From TrEMBL, chain B:
<dbReference type="Pfam" id="PF02653">
    <property type="entry name" value="BPD_transp_2"/>
</dbReference>
<keyword id="KW-1003">Cell membrane</keyword>
<dbReference type="InterPro" id="IPR022497">
    <property type="entry name" value="ABC_trnspt_urea_permease_UrtC"/>
</dbReference>
<dbReference type="InterPro" id="IPR043428">
    <property type="entry name" value="LivM-like"/>
</dbReference>
<protein>
    <submittedName>
        <fullName>ABC-type transport system permease protein (Probable substrate urea/short-chain amides)</fullName>
    </submittedName>
</protein>
<feature type="transmembrane region" description="Helical">
    <location>
        <begin position="30"/>
        <end position="48"/>
    </location>
</feature>
<feature type="transmembrane region" description="Helical">
    <location>
        <begin position="138"/>
        <end position="156"/>
    </location>
</feature>
<dbReference type="GO" id="GO:0015658">
    <property type="term" value="F:branched-chain amino acid transmembrane transporter activity"/>
</dbReference>
<feature type="transmembrane region" description="Helical">
    <location>
        <begin position="60"/>
        <end position="90"/>
    </location>
</feature>
<dbReference type="InterPro" id="IPR001851">
    <property type="entry name" value="ABC_transp_permease"/>
</dbReference>
<dbReference type="GO" id="GO:0005886">
    <property type="term" value="C:plasma membrane"/>
</dbReference>
<feature type="transmembrane region" description="Helical">
    <location>
        <begin position="110"/>
        <end position="131"/>
    </location>
</feature>
<keyword id="KW-0472">Membrane</keyword>
<feature type="transmembrane region" description="Helical">
    <location>
        <begin position="247"/>
        <end position="267"/>
    </location>
</feature>
<feature type="transmembrane region" description="Helical">
    <location>
        <begin position="320"/>
        <end position="341"/>
    </location>
</feature>
<feature type="transmembrane region" description="Helical">
    <location>
        <begin position="198"/>
        <end position="217"/>
    </location>
</feature>
<keyword id="KW-0812">Transmembrane</keyword>
């Protein structure tokens, strides 16, 4: 049903002269970058911890999803939810046992999580072998285009995830407490917020989002222990170009980097697409040390001054 | 003659006093005696274990230079760089390209300074780009990592015939084979180094680099490095040009890493893009973390220990090698965050001050209280006072 609906929309767009296949590629690229980064940005933006095992958390989500389909033959959506929840639980354990001791030691937490990532990758390889039988991609192709309908769904999922994170951190009681903890832990504690719990939950949410990304890409990716690394570069680049604001930064950086990646991949091939992505990121960090969020804040301040 | 013998000891003395200072561990006679014994063992090693073993060991020493470079930039200046392997690889590739293009004995002799220069210039450009662009803290770590990965992506796709510099093909994943053993000199008077000779040469260079680095970190300049690590804003406020100092030390450590890369290319007689991978980029961080990042000797010792173990694992249980590296990294950071050499120093100082008996009793108490907090942190004792962060979270 979804592909048919999408196909109609696309045909209509095509008939009025919109370059649909380029747009699809762009959407694909934006969705990939946004989903790759979202878990990492939640953890970095809210807690100031760089989780270098992020790629492995994504891998874990994909593995749980794939295994629960291959072994227990659960339906795909259930398996995906299980992948996200399983990774969130693992994240909570990691926070309780390891990350907790390293608040305020940013570089140390980076290194510890890297060590964790190495163990997870190699451990997975030792236990499950070099690859898993992949599950098929649902929905088939978009009629009339050489483009998987599932990928269109991924863009919708990316938008949905961004929206939910935004709502969770701005509109709920939990979100207010979590942001209070991040802004001023001592005052938050004095006001009766259990800051320890907030850190654990935030880290679990970030890990869960990483797991969800893995689960979402499980049907279309090759399931290998090192698969996390293909997300790693994109996610880091997005976090640093995005800056400290979780949602705005990820959305802006995902949009810009995704577009550039798609355009250059189209023109010169995948390799130059990636190089262009990295180069853009380097230039953005060089010109805007505060990231895109920093720029957005400056613009907002300037506009505010003009109005007042 | 008399004058000369008068000047020489006084010069030596002034150099020796410069070697010691507050920024290096081990300034005592005991330390230097132990250092001398260790050095002697390393020097005679080829005679005991043979030329082949020495040749194998010389890789560890070459890596030691890479560890040293990271210790200076990370341990002393507080800049975590994943990019040391980038300069390592750039120098290795440059050395391979220049030496193979020129050929003969002249090739390596010319290639050595050229490769160091290219690595130094690369470090200068990247450093200028970052430090004068206001890139700081974790962003430096990530930017250097990204640059390294860009190099990997680039070098890995240079498989075709169009990717050649002079007569040397870059070779993509397969890299550049056939790099000759290290040779110095011109024509007849040249000499080639392999096995034990190469080992001694690398050992001499490493010793020289180590002692030079000690003098550097104990100089006024070294004080400014440590000041930047401890508090960048305050150092700037006191009138130091923080950007310039950071750039200078980044460039210097890039040159050291480059030197290490040249030895690596010589040692294996090939150069491939695996030196730019994320795994290899982290290995130096493991070395330095284990040995003690704020100790130059610790960096070298950590390098040798880890590489020795990695080699053992690769022969006996290759699939567990990476798990082991990850474990070492986590355990060191969590339990001995300063590294083993500073740990040994602290222990020595402690027992020296308190005597053996009292020291052991105190140590038992410490272990007990540590174990209690450890159990508490896992959740067995929930009412512990170890809450994360408060003001600490904001410090970085």
């Amino acid at each position: 049903m979804i592909p048919l609906f999408i196909a109609d929309v696309l045909k209509a767009l095509d008939s009025i002269g919109v370059p649909v296949s380029q747009l699809l590629q762009m959407a694909d690229s934006i969705a990939f970058i946004t989903l790759a980064a979202i878990g990492l940005t939640v953890i970095f933006g809210m807690m100031g911890v760089i989780n270098l095992a992020h790629g492995e958390f994504i891998m874990m989500g994909a593995y749980i999803t794939t295994l629960s389909i291959n072994v227990v033959s659960l339906p795909l959506p259930v398996a995906m939810i299980l992948g996200a929840l399983g990774t969130a639980a693992f994240g909570a354990i990691v926070e309780r046992t390891i990350i907790k001791r390293l608040y305020g030691r940013l570089l140390d937490s980076m290194i510890v999580t890297f060590g964790l990532g190495l163990i997870l990758t190699q451990g997975t390889r030792i236990i499950f072998g070099n690859s898993l039988r992949s599950i098929g991609t649902p929905f088939g192709q978009v009629p009339g285009y050489t483009y998987s309908g599932y990928r269109v769904l991924l863009l919708l999922a990316a938008i949905g995830v961004l929206g939910s994170v935004y709502l969770a951190f701005t509109r709920t009681e939990f979100g207010v407490r979590a942001r209070a903890t991040i802004q001023d832990p001592e005052t938050a504690r004095a006001m009766g917020v259990d800051t320890d719990r907030m850190y654990t939950i935030t880290f679990a949410i970030g890990s869960g989002l990483a797991g969800l990304t893995g689960a979402l890409y499980a049907p279309s990716a090759t399931i290998v222990p090192g698969m996390g690394q293909s997300f790693l570069v994109e996610s880091f680049v997005t976090v640093v170009t995005g800056g400290s604001s979780v949602l705005l930064g990820t959305a802006l950086a995902g949009g810009i980097l995704g577009t550039i990646n798609a355009v250059f991949s189209n023109l010169y091939g995948n390799f130059f697409g990636q190089i262009a992505l990295l180069m853009t990121a380097i230039i953005i960090i060089r010109l805007l040390p505060g990231g895109l969020t920093g720029l957005a804040n400056t613009v907002r301040d300037k506009l505010g001054e003009q109005q007042s | 003659m008399k004058l000369g013998s008068d000047i020489l000891p006084s010069r030596l003395k002034s150099i020796i006093t410069k070697l010691n200072g507050p920024n290096t561990l081990g300034n005592s006679r005991v330390f230097w005696a132990a250092f001398g014994v260790g050095l002697l063992l390393l020097v005679v090693q080829p005679l005991i274990r043979g030329s082949y073993a020495a040749g194998q060991f010389s890789l560890f020493l070459a890596y030691g230079l890479l560890g040293l470079s990271l210790s200076i930039i990370w341990g002393y200046t507080g800049i975590l760089s994943f990019g040391q392997v980038a300069f390592f690889g750039i120098a290795g590739y440059t050395y391979a390209i220049v030496s193979l293009n020129l050929g003969g004995a002249l090739g390596p002799t010319v290639a050595l300074p050229v490769a160091i220069a290219v690595a130094t210039i690369s470090a200068f450009i990247l450093g200028y780009f970052m430090f004068y662009g206001g890139v700081r803290n974790v962003y430096v770590a990530i930017l250097t990592l990204v640059v390294t990965l860009v190099l990997e992506t680039f070098m890995a796709q240079t498989a075709g015939a169009k990717w050649a510099i002079g007569s040397v093909k870059l070779g993509g994943f397969n890299g550049i084979p056939g790099i000759r053993n290290f040779t110095l000199g011109v024509g007849e008077s040249s000499f080639s180094l392999s096995g034990s000779e190469f080992y001694w040469f690398v050992l001499a260079v490493l010793l020289f680099a180590y002692l030079g680095s000690r003098i550097l970190v104990n100089s006024k300049y070294g004080y400014s490095l440590v000041a930047i690590r401890e508090d960048e804003e305050r150092t700037a406020m006191l009138g130091y040009n923080v950007k310039k100092v950071k750039l200078a030390v980044f460039t210097f450590s890039g040159a050291l890493a480059g030197l290490s890369g040249i030895f690596y290319a010589n040692w294996g007689n090939y150069m491939d893009p695996s030196v730019f991978t994320i795994t290899f980029a982290t290995i130096p961080i493991v070395w330095v973390t284990l040995g003690g990042r704020e100790s130059l000797l610790g960096a070298i010792v950590g390098t040798v220990i880890i590489e020795w173990l990695r080699k053992w694992f690769s022969i006996n249980a290759s699939e567990f090698a990476i798990v082991f590296v990850g474990l070492i990294l986590m355990i060191t950071i969590l339990f001995i965050p300063r590294g083993i050499l500073p740990g040994i120093r602290d222990m020595y100082v402690f027992f020296n001050a308190h005597g053996l008996r009292e020291g052991i009793e105190h140590g038992r108490d410490t272990i007990q209280s540590r174990a209690q907090t450890l159990l508490g942190s896992v959740g067995i004792d929930i009412s512990d006072s170890e809450t994360p962060g408060s003001s600490e979270v904001m410090r970085e």
